[in-house]
Amino acid sequence: MAVTMPIDPIQSEPNRAAILHSEQIHTRTTSSVGMIIFLGSWAVMFASLFFGYGMHRTASVSWPPPGFEPLPLLVPGINTLLIILSSVFLHVAGQQFRQGNGRLSNRWLSGTILLGAVFLALQLSVWTALWQSGMTLRSGGFASYFYLLTVFHALHVIVGLGLLGWVGLMQRRVSAEIKQPVRLGLATMFWHFVGVAWVLTYTFVYVL
Amino acid sequence: MNSRILRWTSFVTVLLCGLFVGVGLAFAEVQPESGFGLPRDVSLEGWRIDWLLQVTTLFVGLLFFIMCVWMVYACVVHNEDHEAVYDHGDAKHAVVVALTLSCVIFFVVDGNLFYNSVVDVEEAFWNFERAESHPEAIRIEVNSRQWAWEGRYAGADGEFGTPYAQSPDDVVVLNHFRVPVGVPVILELASVDVIHSFYLPNFRAKIDVMPGMINKLWFQATETGDFDIGCAQHCGTHHYKMKGMLSVLPRDEYDAWHRMASQRAERTHDPIDKHAQWGWAWRKDR
Amino acid sequence: MDLQPIHPEPTSFVKKYLFSTDHKVIAKQFLWTGMIFLFIGGVLAMWIRWQWGFPNQPVPAILGGALLSDSDGIIGPATYASVFTQHGLIMIFFAITPALIGCFGNFCIPLMIGARDMAFPKLNMLSYWTFLLSCILVLASFFPDMGGAAAGWTTYPPLSTNVGTPGWGQTLMVMAIFVTGSATIMGSINYVTTVIRLRAPGMTYMRMPGTVWGLWLTAILNVLFVPVLAGGAVLLLLDRLFGTEFFMAGASGNGDPILFQHLFWIFGHPEVYILILPAWGIMTDLMSFFSRKPAYWFKGSVYAMIGVTILSAVVYGHHMFLTGMSPLLGHTFMLLTLIISVPAEMLFLNWLHTMWHGSIRLTVPMLFALGSVFVFGLGGLTGIYLGTISTDIYLHDTMFVVGHFHFTMAAATFLGTFAAIYHWYPKMFGRKMNVTAGKVHFWGSVVFITLVFGGQMLVGYAGQQRRLWDPYQYTFLEHLADLNLWTSYAAFALGIFQVPFVVNFIGSMIRGPKAEANPWELGTLEWTLPSPPPNYNFAEMPKVYRGPHEYNNPEVKRVLGKDWIGQSELMPGEQEPVESSQQEAGSDREAE
User: Fold this and answer.
1) Inter-chain residue contact B36 with C480, CB threshold 8 Å
2) Which domain holds residue C386?
3) Is residue A57 part of a domain?
4) Whether residues B114 and B143 fall in one domain
5) Shortest Cα–Cα distance, A35 to chain C (Å)
6) CATH number of the domain within which A188 lies
7) Around A58, how many Cα atoms within 13 Å sit in the side-chain half-sphere?
8) Searching chain A, which residue's CA lies closest to the CA of residue C229?
């Protein structure tokens, strides 16, 4: 497609829709590529922290090491379900948005955010309980890795919630035409990434 | 600036640099503590490293020389007045030549180095079974700290007693290690604080010492004398001073020293000396 | 319809020069910052050489001794440990990375692929200001009472924990590394996305100049491996600040110092390729441009760079040969390390063939490119000694290693950076640099680089360890004092020969002759624009018909009477090829 262009691109009304649609697809693809690379970087960073965890674990005589109780499974297990559910809600929000039901989409989005907030609250409760029972940052390698992986993940949940909140706010603006699907798509990718990271953390840190 | 003068100046300069490097390499022949050659080698197996260093230098020097001559010739002869040949170099035969040349260099040079290094490591440097199986091997446990080397020899009973309280005859030395000539000396090394690296330049031996791990090193001296022990891993402010001395003694002198030191250790043994409470059962099968 | 609309030019000083989203302005910001830190890193190097040439003598005020007034100008052992630590970290992260990757990545990529700016201009601006924050942290790390970072650039724990190196200096430095890593990742996301998404019609991957390839592959490595360093840095910071036990070992805990080495070198080895790939790409281009013939087997060079990129992570164990690893693992890393030398060797052969039967114009950029090839040859070949376990047992942690990496990482990348600066200066600043000063800078640099780093290799061969405040404590090193002294003199001379460059760089900006659009007679897209280009780069998006190395094409010479043709230039009578209009750089096909 030839792209010689005069300085002012929008020459006439009938062209406007085609132009905006094209621009939207171009921007969305470009932003998606950027987001995928960004998430790839974070995935590598998580992987390196898990690598450390793996090294520590293989070097340990027993697991949990002497002096540590096994980690609770119930509440974090509930959290796993919650976060999977939140990804489902977000997926539905996306579907509704694509079908043009902006308001409904925003409700599902709010549901996602709510579930994420509950996730954080439950995480906090688990940490508090463990901290009060004597497992602090200074307690040794087992504690160090536990807090590292779960807190690091929780920070990403907070960022994810912020992104989703911003997307929700932007929905009400008129200029949402071009940018909103991009924003929603990017925030969705980030949120699913956070969900997958949690499932891996739950599996390798709590369960196995 | 006249480009002709520039070209010849560059040719001469490169030639001079090449001569400098060549002369430097020539001086880097094994010369006992003179010129800037390798330190004197008094070990049984160090010749492997020296040989490989020299073979590598030969290959590397040849390739470097060819590269320099090529570049200077091209700059001087294929200059602005020369007509360039329009060649993308992606014709099939050109690619085959390039790949073949790369493979030849790889197999001849790198292949040689790889093979010899594997043999060296398996036969000598990391072949601890060979050292351990020698009936007269000397064993020393080394505790590295900022900034000194402590050593521990099994006493007259031949056993590393642990803990210290139960091994009054073990000989503990600080920075000065004595070993006999002509038998394998095996070291097991630990660190109490940071990473160090035990380095014997005259024996071409070196191993990192990591806290939380015990690493091994072995060597065999072919001559008597006093030699430097160095630290080769940055370990803090006084890393530069973490020097020890290795005295290689004739067998009977070593035995006499060891006997006397072991007796003295037993006499002066203090079970509540907590700074001496280091040591471990010898790990034969690592 | 244009997917890269032209934005109106900013008018305020702040938006034009400070908080600009224009990739060309950001490039210059990186360049200035990088050059300032190159100076700081250089002064630190001079201090190291001073200590070895004149042990325990006060540094003369002119070399910065005034900054050591606490100790009457003498560099003590603790200060010395800080000096070599900061020298390494600053040169790698705060000098080469911004000057080569930050500046030329930003400047060249959009221009050479035919784009108006990066894919994410605001993120680009954020990457510079994040980088500047890391610079502030690094400078702050010099001042705490207990001294600056002092655990070597490699920052191995336990020495780098607060048991080994207490105080805020080391902590601030690790924070600075973390922040600069974030800035690098931001920038690299931009570079990778821009090359994938914003290439002009007809600009296929194989028509991209080597410069873009080098910078793009560097960005891919950055995105993949800087996070590993970030992981290691986070663990170390947690140990230092919160008492966790990731690395506290020996008497202090059950942590694992080897973990840090794994994380560090899984990053660290790709890092050295990150630093050299842009230089390789630039050298591939400049050798062709100034030999006035095509880059020999360009496809092979591209594949070689890709090969190095892929292999870079699996060779890292050669930094850890002496940590007590199993022989099998050692042999494996050795094999892979020797294999990675093959693509580098192929690249070399291609450069040599490019020159051969060329019509070589010894311009200042070409001299620096040739110099870079020369020092990289020397440095690369010496890597073989270190990749072989047997010889590495002797050479590990000696000055031989230092000489090797200075030739490859410092000399080749800096000569490559200078080549890039002299080459693109007319386009960046609209003026031409003085040729004589450039040649003086070149000869002084190459000769003294060879002498300094060659001197390092010689003392290393004689067995001198790294990082010794006073090597002459050791009997077996006492005789090296003269060699070290002469190497130090060569280092001082190297420093002095950078002055013509500084004077030339700043002076030409003010008083240099104005540069025309295409002073070097080249075909890549940036030379079709005025010098300097307008903020929107291309008024009309270019269409690309050929590769960047079409020099001395007989058909072109016959028809157009010149020995070059532009990538977006059509020969008279040449039809616009149908494929070029459909070879969208991945952008608009979905819109159809």
Assistant:
1) yes
2) 381-429+441-464+475-513
3) no
4) no
5) 8
6) 1.20.120.80
7) 6
8) A45
Which residues does chain B have within 8 Å of residue C298's beta carbon, measured at their own beta carbons? 88-90
Q: Within this chain, do residues B106 and B174 fall inside the same structural domain, yes or no?
A: no
Q: Do C242 and A30 touch (CB under 8 A)?
A: no
Buried b (16+ CB within 10 A) or exposed e, C519-551: bbebbbbbbbbebebebbbbeebbbbbbbbbbb
Question: In the 3-class helix/strand/coil scheme, how is C212-223 assigned residue by residue?
Answer: HHHHHHHHHHHH
Q: Is residue B143 domain-shared with residue B117, that is, in the same domain?
A: no
The model's pLDDT over C323-343, given as tens digits with 9 standing for 90+, comes to 999 999 999 999 999 999 999
* Count of domains for chain B: 2
Residues of A in contact with C189 (CB under 8 A): 34, 37-38, 41
Instruction: Indicate whether B175 and B221 sit together in one domain.
Output: yes
Q: Structure tokens of A30?
A: 């470009």
Q: Which residue of B has its CA nearest to C336?
A: B114
Is B89 close to C297, i.e. CB distance below 8 A? yes
Task: CATH number of the domain at B248, please.
Answer: 2.60.40.420
Q: Is A24 within the bounds of a domain?
A: no
Which has more confidence, A197 or A137? A197
pLDDT digits (tens, 9 = 90+) for C500-524: 999 999 999 999 999 999 999 999 9
Claim to verify: residue B119 and residue B173 sit in the same structural domain: no
Spatial CA neighbour of C526 closest among C426, C419, C414, C417: C426
Dihedral, C52, C58, C61, C62 alpha carbons, nearest 10: -20
How many distinct structural domains can be found in chain A? 1
Q: Dump pLDDT digits (tens) for B62-120.
A: 999 999 999 999 998 999 999 999 999 989 998 998 899 889 989 999 999 999 999 99
pLDDT at B163: 64
B103 vs C contacts (CB less than 8 Å): 342
Rounded Cα gap, residues C482 and B34, in angstroms = 12
The whole-angstrom separation of Cα A94 and Cα A84 is: 16
Is B285 within the bounds of a domain? Answer: no
Domain span including residue B44: 34-80+89-126
Does some domain include residue C308? no
Q: What are phi and psi of C556, to 5 degrees?
A: -65, -45
Chain C's closest residue to A12, CA to CA, is: C1
Residue-number span of the structural domain to which A188 is assigned: 73-208
Residue C3 lies in a domain: no
Residue B1, domain member (yes or no): no
The reply to whether C136 falls in a domain is no
- The answer to whether C71 contacts chain B (CB < 8 Å) is no
Q: Which chain A positions have a beta carbon within 8 Å of C587's beta carbon? A: 26, 29
Cross-chain CB nearest to C588 (options A1, A37, A141): A1
Is B18 inside any structural domain? no
Is there a domain that residue C413 lies in?
A: yes
Considering its fold, how many domains does chain C have in total? 1
Residue of chain C with shortest Cα separation from A42: C227
**Strand ranges across the sheet with B176-180:** B176-180, B244-249, B225-231, B196-200, B205-209
Could C476 and B3 be called an inter-chain contact, meaning their C-beta atoms sit closer than 8 Å? no
Separation of alpha carbons B41 and C490, rounded Å: 31
CB contact under 8 Å between B238 and C77, yes or no, is yes
User: Has residue A180 been placed in a domain?
Assistant: yes
The verdict on C92 touching B (C-beta cutoff 8 Å) is: no
Note whether B154 and B212 are same-domain residues.
Answer: yes
Are C256 and A59 within 8 A, CB to CB? yes
Residue B176 lies in a domain: yes
One-letter amino acid identity for C69? S
Counting as contact any 3 or more CB pairs under 8 A, the partners of B are C
Nearest to A177 by CA among A28, A20, A32, A18: A20
Comparing C443 with A11, the larger pLDDT belongs to C443
Both B172 and B252 in one domain: the answer is yes
Chain A residues near residue C545 by CB distance under 8 angstroms? none
The tens digit of pLDDT for each residue in A17-73 reads 776 777 777 777 899 999 999 999 999 999 999 999 999 998 888 888 888 888 888
B28/chain C closest Cα distance in angstroms: 8
